[in-house]
Amino acid sequence: MNSFQFQNPTQIVFGPGTVSKLGELVQPYGRNVLLVYGSGSIKRTGLYDQVIAQLNAIGARMYELPDVEPNPRLSTVHKGIELARAHSIDLILAVGGGSVIDAAKAIAVGVPYEGDVWDFCIRKAVIREGLPLGTVLTLAATGSEMNGNSVITNWETQQKRAFGSRFAYPRFSILDPELTYTVPASHTVNGAVDIMSHVFEQYFSLTANTPLQERFCEGILQTVIENVELALADPQHADARANLLWAGTMALNGIIGVGVQQDWASHGIEHEISAIYDIPHGAGLSIVFPNWMKYVYQERIDRFVQYAVRVWGVDPSGKTPEETALAGIERTRAFFTRIGAQATLAEFGIGADKLERMAEEAVRFGPLGSFKKLERDDVLRILQMSL
Ligand code: NZQ
Ligand code: ZN
């Protein structure tokens, strides 16, 4: 295990009906609240009215930034920064999925910065402060509710970039599983694939002697596998929705990856795809990840054998390590397909024409990943396998 430091400041308020705590959570930060949300799901579900009632009850002055896009755009973040500055906002309140939360984070760190917030995404500037941020999460997927990361798309340059900062952690996040009952099947699936992918990025590692981290990872993977089909069959399955929600948070709040060299190549490749084609993040991962696995498994076959045996129950007897490892990868692909996730870029009408450009962009800061360091041609090969 590697040496590490760990701190996660986000207060989690988990459980059915916890939106009723919103007023008391917001109150200490001041009166001016910027409410950030997406394209209308919170209005259709009635959550918007609940949030407004809570804020009214504490006498908050509310300003709104609606219509944050899935794969949130820099132009929308700019609008939010202007609003927040114009109204001396005390707290940014994100109500939605990862996209809404990520946009709110970029607004929070962008307000006190005199340059363009995009500088943080292209590593041109370091984040030194941020406005307080709170969230009400409505979709189990990204873990953004309990981490300091944000992923923003600059549509003009077709670049999707992430930043991470201790100043971008939510101060609090409300996780009410009932708020996820209305998530449609496609986004339930995309979220499940995203959660599993976050675990993969931290589990397929060359670091030795990390049994606790590995078992955390295997536990989260099995929890998602056991619960996503229950939620698909019955969208109001209380236990399944609760377990998916907590699995999503645990997969990317930093705990399972401490002391471990992490990879993140597949996320890097996916971000290049969604930057150009605007496909859902989880769908891109469902296409890319099994191909990444096939491309890299020989770097550390024992970890892939462990994955196959412990997560998928593959019987290794009578099989070579390679056969066992490949059986685990096949089970992954088959599971993604069974729950309705995409397997090829062609399913989104994406052809070979921009693969080279994506591969070049993916390695702009150097090779991707650590399990196997991927150069441009490696990324291109994985993209070609994904066609
Ligand atoms: O926009 P609205 O109307 O709210 O609808 C959303 C959106 O269309 C809908 N939705 C959300 N909650 C719902 C609901 N519909 C009905 N009922 C509900 N309760 O779902 C759609 C997708 O929402 P989105 O927020 O885009 O999904 P997700 O949470 O998967 O976020 C994806 C974004 O997060 C980034 C991705 O790259 C992508 O931009 N990521 C952020 C990470 C982070 N901050 O740590 C890590 C991830 O790896 C990821 O890269
Ligand atoms: Zn992800």
Give a written overview of the molecule.
It holds the Pfam family ADH_Fe_C. Keywords: Oxidoreductase. This is Iron-containing alcohol dehydrogenase. Residues 9-177 form the Alcohol dehydrogenase iron-type/glycerol dehydrogenase GldA domain. With 387 residues, this protein is an alpha/beta fold. The two termini are 37 Å apart. Helix 8 packs antiparallel against helix 9. The strands form two sheets. A six-stranded parallel beta sheet has the order 1-8-5-4-2-3, with helices on both faces. A two-stranded antiparallel sheet has the order 6-7. The chain has two domains: 11-179, Rossmann fold, CATH 3.40.50; 184-385, Dehydroquinate synthase-like, alpha domain (Up-down Bundle), CATH 1.20.1090.10. Strand 6 (149-154) and strand 7 form a beta hairpin. 48% of the residues lie in helices and 11% in strands. Zinc ion is lined by residues 142, 194, 197-198, 267, 281.
Please describe the structure with a list of short key phrases separated by commas or semicolons:
single chain; 387 residues; alpha/beta; Rossmann fold; Dehydroquinate synthase-like, alpha domain; six-stranded parallel beta sheet; two-stranded antiparallel ribbon; 48% helix; 11% strand; binds 5,6-dihydroxy-NADP; binds zinc ion; ADH_Fe_C; ADH_Fe_CS
